[in-house]
Design brief:
The chain is mostly helical. The chain contains 22 helices and six strands. The chain has a two-stranded antiparallel sheet. A two-stranded antiparallel ribbon has the order 3-4. Strands 5-6 form a two-stranded antiparallel ribbon. Helix 4 runs parallel beside helix 18 (about 390-420) and helix 16 crosses helix 17. It is globular, with a radius of gyration of 24 Å. The protein starts with a strand and ends in a 25-residue tail after the last helix.
Length: about 575
């Protein structure tokens, strides 16, 4: 928990006469103060911490897409709507996810911010983005539960471990890795990558040699629900909705991309390629995995039945049997476990970041990112024990409406509002410069999500139900610039930031509250404390009542002079 220690802070400036007196100086609990654990969970990632190469950051980010939920999602879509509809749905969703992911990935990598900080400054406001923290947290624990269920199925098949115990084991196994943050996750992703790549390719090589006709037969597969092999508009819409539930994955990619080193003339080409590959590029591999998972499920359908075909391990084992015989099951189990550890480390890590952001704004306390690992994993474990895997399609179809409304609003701000001057050019994430709520992004997301959810539940007819995610995307991207224009962008900044153009600066200033030194982009001038304050102390202050955003506050001193980092 956040602790307070003496001596007292400086008195408030004359501009804030009559305001509450600043409290004592703040010190942080050990887990929150140790950045080797904390990984700047609530802050801008400073240049001094971004010591990895573009290739190393990209490799770590891409390691997080090893998940096998793609196999289950692809299999579910093709079983329900047939190959033709599944192919169209998966490719369409991939295009949408790729295009919306480009500006988000570049903004996070260039500005050293995660998805939450980006959302704050992209039309949502300081408290407006609190709701999106919950949306993002739900993404991480839903998919943690989904991936954990798949790993538990592997433990059950290979070791005979009961599923409830398997769920617990899959949850506990990732905690030590995530506890240490980016440093340990990067090592784990690097060490496991060769095993994962071999395991990813092997079943398709064996299938191509042993049963090449399966590929041709797959293209005429009409599903198991009587849809048929042709294209239907309803099947396409419903399938796309499920595939679009993965759109929030860009947030997990951004959690790593924020550690990308500064873009310079010397590394510009490598930087651009790394951000493109590790940002929106994940969906290229993801779409191929969805189609590959559907193919393996189809090939194994006669041997294992539909229910087992939707569980990735069963089709995977069947694909290996022709060459590996009795060794197929343990080797398949190894591949599943490695894949799920890789992705659930990312899910748990990103969940700890989103919960940290949510609770810091609600409670004005921050015990440290590591404690929220247990919250995120605990919620995921509960979902696993409740057998959420059996309701996969419906759950993801509903979730995609909310997620795409959020991502659509953020994307609209980055690609429409900022170029047109409807919003500030820079990403302003600090509480000291933001309104609590900005109707441009927050309002657009809420309206788009509400309308699309109503459509999802059939309020506007069958076709609107099938295409509810498209309704969410269209409304969010249209309403965000429209509201920004109508409000003349006045809700983006509560007061101007004179240092907005210093994002590349490595100079530091001392916070008058915690007395730590922070790079200029992570600080603000504070009239309540009469000096420079770091963004985290600013977020956690419960006594200032946002005095800095009042027009009467006037200019304030910047505190101690900057020093060269």
């Amino acid at each position: 928990m956040t602790e307070i220690s003496s001596p007292p802070a400086q008195a408030a400036s004359e501009a804030t006469a009559g305001a509450p007196t600043p409290g004592p100086r703040r010190s942080y609990a050990k887990s929150a103060a140790d950045e080797s654990l904390e990984d700047y969970s609530l802050r801008y990632a400073p240049h001094s911490f971004r010591r990895w190469s573009p290739a190393a950051v990209a490799s770590t980010a891409l390691g997080g897409i090893a998940y096998l939920a793609d196999y289950a999602i692809g299999a579910g879509i093709v079983m329900s709507y047939g190959f033709t509809n599944a192919l169209a749905s998966i490719l369409t969703a991939a295009v949408v996810i790729f295009l919306t992911g480009i500006p988000i990935a570049r903004a996070c990598a260039a500005n050293g911010v995660d998805m939450d900080l980006l959302t704050r400054g992209s039309g949502f406001g300081y408290f407006g983005s609190t709701l999106t923290s919950l949306v993002y947290a739900s993404f991480t624990f839903i998919f943690f539960a989904l991936e954990g269920s798949i790993m538990a199925q592997a433990f059950h098949e290979v070791l005979g471990l009961p599923l409830p115990l398997g769920y617990l084991l899959t949850t506990v196994i990732v905690v030590p890795i995530v506890f240490k943050g980016m440093a340990w996750i990067a090592r784990m992703q690097s060490w496991t990558q060769p095993v994962w790549i071999v395991g990813l390719v092997a079943p398709f090589v064996i299938l191509a040699v042993e049963s090449p006709s399966s590929f041709r037969e797959f293209t005429s597969f009409g599903g198991t629900h009587g849809v048929g092999s042709g294209f239907t508009l309803l099947g396409f819409g419903l399938g796309t909705g499920v595939a679009l539930s993965l759109i929030a994955q860009i947030g997990e990619q951004a959690d790593y991309l924020r550690f990308m080193p500064a873009r310079t003339p010397a590394n510009a080409r490598r930087w651009d390629l790394a951000v493109l590959a590790a940002g929106p590029g994940w969906v290229v591999i993801g779409a191929l995995k969805q189609l590959g998972g559907a193919l393996l499920a189809f090939a194994a359908l006669g041997a294992v039945g539909e229910a087992k075909a939707l569980e990735p391990i069963a089709p995977y084992v069947e694909s290996l049997r022709p060459w590996l015989g009795g060794a197929a099951l343990p080797l398949a189990g190894l591949f599943v476990v490695v894949s799920q550890i890789k992705i659930n480390s990312t899910n748990a890590y990103s969940g700890s970041l989103s919960w940290s952001n949510f609770f810091s704004r609600i409670t004005h306390r921050h015990p440290g990112r590591v404690w929220y690992i247990f919250l995120n994993c605990g919620v995921a474990l509960l979902l696993m024990e409740l057998d959420m895997f059996s309701a996969l399609g419906s759950l993801l179809g509903f979730y995609s409406n909310v997620a795409i409304a959020w991502i659509g609003a953020v994307t609209a701000d980055l690609v429409i509002n900022k170029p047109l001057g409807l919003s500030p050019k820079h990403i302003e994430f600090k509480r000291a410069h933001l309104h609590p709520v900005n109707p441009a992004g927050f309002g657009a997301m809420c309206v788009a999500a509400a309308v699309s959810i109503a459509a999802f539940f059939g309020l506007f007819g069958t076709y609107a139900e099938a295409f509810s995610p498209f309704i969410a995307l269209a409304l969010a991207m249209a309403l965000c610039p429209l509201i920004a224009w109508a409000t003349k962008g006045r809700y983006y900044l509560a007061r101007p930031n004179p240092e907005a153009g210093m994002n590349d600066s490595t100079e530091t200033r001392q916070c008058v509250v915690c007395e730590g030194h922070y790079e200029i982009p992570d600080t603000a001038s504070c009239p309540f404390h009469s000096g420079t304050i770091c963004s985290l102390c600013c977020s956690l202050d419960a006594d200032c009542h946002d005095v800095c955003t009042r027009p009467a506050a006037g200019p304030v001193p910047l505190g101690l002079p900057a020093v060269r980092g």
